[in-house]
Design a protein that fits this description.
alpha+beta, 11-stranded mixed beta sheet, 6-stranded antiparallel beta sheet, about 20% helix, about 20% strand
Length: about 750
């Protein structure tokens, strides 16, 4: 007789005729546990949704608010990676290795650029309790050097509990030509008329839901829908943008006033709430000239159109829930990962690649570019004055621990919940409370040792006593702590002693916008909160405090990834080299040598292509010539030379100069054969990386048409030799700082 498993209820004998088969009972009915959809917006300010006081049309979000709860005191961290880590773990971000961004590992336990592997995340817990877990959109919880076609994958979504993934792994991407990944592999950006990433993400989210209902309807699902909107570049169909130009001619000052008034009328903000003082460096709208007003209004219109377009995609998902008959059984959350961003600087730009390259262009320089607004070559960023308006009625922005950086809209809608789960709630809630709250609502035990607490009892009414008594913040040396309605906060200056920081004190129970500093009136309370901050910092692994600018933090990373390599070999047929590799720009001294066959002189095709229609460089053969082209922000250069029939190596040598320009020298057989000057080099030529033997998508060149692929057997390999300079990492870090 065979030994049969203890959980097998049939019988096993020598033959089938003598044995009895048995199958576990199959659950055919729909699960009684609710589904969960968590919509995470990016860089969207507290006042940007219509239901939070905005002029921007957001009917999908507003509909959720009308039949759900709006939390007016929901807090996040002032950067995206830490907030996303806190949402999924229920833990404070320092304690799990995500002090600031996932982009890099600075060498300390609190800043590894990834979530500690022993920390179980919400999708893992839900999967163990019968849920399917899907992520569509932004991840940004893997270090940039791990975003490669070959992994490693331990910090990718599928390794952290999600069953399916489709989206982008970096902090931001282009909406028309994104670098996309599905599950554990890269996929090409769809090449179809009218493509937009937000729509594509919604398509995949809907497909995941529909597949789930077809094949796993007896199980509930968790879907995190993480849009690229409204992180720059602002890109949307032009009709979405044009409808807002007239709306925002009133300027950012009047917009703040109007939004606050609407917030008060809604009951979202207490009557008598003051606008926080104007952020330093933001000019009064009335002090701008006519040209500035015109350009800046258009840039804000691009943001507004981008947001409304994103809302429409969420509306499509909500309609799918209705069509499938599961809307009442689905909890939907909407939130933003941090406050609105000032990274557009004082003047913004029609092309985000300008501020992301450290280039500030005047309104006069931008005026001729307005026709491109919202397109592939017109992915905008607004001036920081509009970011200030987005964060109405608070001060500061993303990257700061004042409310403009850490107060986020939060909508929770569950049609199947009791009717008490409607209206406005003013209980203190933080991102770390989301996972415990969801687990309680789903009837699943929370993880031991989490920092957050469930606020599910707030569903019962506005007066429910919920949550914790204390929460701290720290980012780039800026610090704050909240305790039982009192808040202490300081903006830290890099290099200054922490003891010299000037702390402000607010009674948040009577000062919603934190506009009245009470530090002089209550010095004992301030000292108590300062001491509390230090104890919370000790408990949550905040130390060592590190006030280095982001550029220096990234410079301190270990020698890892392609960026640290001196010699890189690329081959035809290999996968796309993504932008996060940091080797796709023109900001470093490099020698490029393509090893080719004698056929090269007789064929046309790309040898090496970086970037797309926004800018980049390309080395190619055409009509018996070797050609190099480079373009950045409209400044273009072309160098070409005749290509001999016996050429076995061709390439170029790029050398950067202190004035921001670079020299380019074409080489054939190791000999210099032509030269030119690149007016302005950059590590951020576009949002698209590097391709071998083809032009993957669009191109800035008017001489070639993608894919312009080189025939097989012409190119053997391309050798890149990088001449590292002392400021290589600084240049790269400066780019990351501008776009984070």
């Amino acid at each position: 007789m065979s030994i049969q498993p203890a959980d097998f209820e049939g019988t096993v004998r020598t033959t089938f005729a003598d044995s009895t088969p048995w199958w576990p009972a199959r659950e055919n009915s729909r699960s009684t546990q609710p589904n969960v959809i968590m919509v995470v917006l990016d860089d969207t300010g507290w006042s940007d949704l219509g239901c939070f006081g905005s002029e921007i049309s957001t009917p999908a979000f507003d509909s959720l608010a009308s039949c759900g709860i709006r939390y007016n005191s929901f807090h996040v961290t002032p950067l995206c990676s830490p907030t996303r880590a806190a949402l999924l773990s229920g833990r404070n971000h320092h304690s799990i290795g995500m002090r600031f961004l996932a982009d890099t590992d600075t060498g300390f336990p609190n800043s590894r650029g990834s979530i500690r592997p022993d920390v179980r995340l919400l999708p893992q817990i839900l999967r163990e309790n019968g849920y399917a877990s899907y992520l569509v959109g932004k991840w940004h919880l893997a270090p940039l050097h791990e975003i490669t076609p070959a992994g490693p994958y331990q910090n990718w979504p599928l390794s952290r509990g999600f069953d399916r993934y489709y989206g982008f792994l970096d902090g931001c991407t282009d909406q028309y030509e994104p670098e996309l990944y599905e599950d554990n592999h890269p996929v090409p950006a769809p090449n179809r008329e009218g493509y937009h990433l937000s729509e594509d993400l919604a398509d995949h989210a809907i497909a995941f839901i529909e597949d789930h209902e077809t094949f796993r309807r007896n199980s509930p699902f968790f879907l995190q829908f993480a849009l690229g909107a409204t992180h720059a570049p602002f890109q949307a169909p032009r009709d979405y943008i044009d409808r807002y130009v007239d709306v925002f001619t009133k300027g950012w000052d009047q917009t703040r006033i109007d939004r606050l008034n609407r917030q008060i009328e809604m009951g979202l903000v207490p009557d008598g709430t003051q606008l926080a003082e104007r952020n330093e460096g933001v000019l009064p709208w009335d002090d701008l000239d006519a040209e500035q007003k015109d350009v800046y209004t258009h840039l804000q219109a691009a943001f507004a159109g981008f947001l409304e377009h994103a809302d429409a995609q969420v509306g499509r998902i909500l309609s799918t829930l209705d069509e499938l008959g599961i809307a009442d059984d689905t909890i939907v959350l909407v939130l933003s990962d941090n406050g609105a961003s000032r990274e557009g600087g004082p003047s913004g730009d029609v092309d985000t690649n300008a501020p992301y390259s450290g280039v500030r262009r005047s309104a006069a320089e931008q005026m001729p570019l307005l026709d491109n607004l919202g397109t592939l070559t017109g992915g905008a960023h607004y001036p920081e004055g509009w970011a200030m308006a987005s964060n109405t009625p608070f001060r500061q922005y993303k990257q700061f621990v004042d409310l403009g950086g850490v107060r986020s809209p939060l909508i929770v809608s569950w049609p199947g919940a009791p009717q008490t789960a409607r209206g406005i709630r003013d209980q203190f809630v933080h991102a770390i409370d989301i996972a415990p709250t969801l687990l309680e609502l789903l009837g699943i035990d929370a993880e031991a040792g989490v920092d957050g607490e469930s606020v599910a009892s707030s569903f019962a009414g506005a007066e429910a006593a919920v949550g914790r008594h204390t929460q701290y913040w720290e980012t780039l040396g800026h610090r704050a702590v909240w305790s039982d309605g009192w808040k202490a906060v300081t903006v830290h200056k890099t290099g200054e002693p922490y003891d010299d920081d000037v702390w402000r004190l607010y009674d948040t129970s009577t000062d919603f916008s934190e506009s009245r500093d009470l530090a002089q009136l209550h010095p004992h309370k301030l000292r108590h909160l300062q001491q509390l901050w230090w104890s919370e910092a000790e408990r949550n692994d905040v130390f060592p405090l590190d006030d280095r600018p982001l550029r220096e933090l990234i410079e301190a990373r270990g020698p890892i990834g392609l960026f640290a390599e001196t010699n890189i070999t690329l081959r035809p047929g290999q996968s796309h080299i993504p932008y996060p590799s940091a080797v796709t720009g023109s900001n470093r001294d490099i020698d490029v040598t393509a090893h080719v066959s004698p056929l090269c002189a007789n064929v046309d095709g790309a040898l090496l292509s970086s970037g797309n229609a926004q800018g980049g460089y390309v080395l190619y053969t055409l009509g018996g010539q070797l050609v190099f082209e480079h373009s950045h922000l409209g400044d273009s250069v072309e160098v070409s030379t005749a290509l001999p029939a016996d050429a076995s190596t061709v390439g170029f040598r790029l050398r950067t100069r202190d004035d921001g320009s670079a020299s380019i020298v074409l080489t054939i057989g190791g000999e210099d054969v032509g030269s030119g000057t690149i007016p302005r080099f950059s590590s951020h030529l576009s949002f698209w990386g590097l391709d071998v033997a083809q032009i993957a998508n669009s191109t800035f060149s008017d001489r070639v048409v993608p894919p312009f692929a080189l025939p097989r057997n012409v190119l053997d390999r391309i050798d890149l030799t990088v001449h590292h300079a002392a400021d290589d990492a600084a240049e790269y870090a400066e780019t990351l700082l501008s776009r984070e």
